[in-house]
Amino acid sequence: MNYDLKRQIEFIYNMTQSSTHKKQIVKNFVDIYFELLNTIKEQLENKNKEFNEFYKKNILLKKTNIKLFIKTWYEYITKHYYHYIMDNNVNYFFSDELKTKLSEQYNVPVMKYIVLIKEKYNSVNNSIVESILTKIKFLTQISYQYFNIF
Q: Residue 50's pLDDT is what?
């Protein structure tokens, strides 16, 4: 079984055990979010100054307002694109239309960097792309459950 899928199944099982685990849910969300950022960082080969600054801001935010990560993901990605993501509609998720909405209209800069990976899609190993997509799906599912189940 794929490691990410196994981890997702275990996490969802643990989440449903008790609503008192909200803090742990947020922590797990942030851990996966930073795994996503680290994957992007590796693919950009640490050469993208703008991304590196974005990454540093996220590190600072992690120390001050950890819940903002899951709230922002939910408000700007999950609420609007949940079904596209959960249905594996990769073409829409990587579309210029969505990139523009998320990065310019809603100021969700992580999308800009995900799209940078998409632009490198032909040169990036498929397992890396699959890993990124799995993390996006996982973050979307966690945020949906956090705000709609608990």
A: 84
